[in-house]
Amino acid sequence: MNRSHLEFALLTDDGSRAAALGRHPGAEIFWYFEDHFGDGTGMGLYDPPLQKTLRWAAWGDFVVLAPTDRYEIRAYRHDGSLARIVRRENNVRGPTQADIESYREANVLTETATMMTDRYNATLDAFPVPESFPAFTAIEVDAPGNLWVREYNLPEDGDRALWTVFDPEGVVLGFVETPPGLVIHEIGEDYILGKAEDELGVEYVQMWGLDRSGQARSGI
Description:
This protein is mainly beta.
């Protein structure tokens, strides 16, 4: 398993560096090397099962940098100093070999055997069971300045998209479930704007009503 690091900095209007935010772990990539490949090369899974990665966003006057390894979201000031840490209990079960097998069955290539399909399937077979699930998958900031954190979907959760919403002080306001498959681009005062695909892969822009009293309205 390979994981590069990303260096973050804040820049001024003229492009000069204003503050350094440090190096943070990026996305995991699984590389598999096998003697029978014959040429000393390997195959990489750039989006492996249970991939841990890094999410970032502007949150009011802060910059959020959050590896998905654990439920600990760090917010930095414009001078690069740590301003706030948002945590939430996230005691979920660990992954099993059956979880990895299920992923493999859904992703194995069954087309006519070629060198590349053989390598890809061999790489899936060799993928080890990670120690833990990621804590979350995405972060968004809405118009009022609340931080939305999408909970990680366990295999038994299906396509459910559940978000925990934190106020600007980092206090939990509640939970919001968004439509499955909706990729969110903007969260306004009373709407969620995003895109979704139909069964043919055609993209559609969708706007959903957002009732902050606790009940979502129907999509438009």
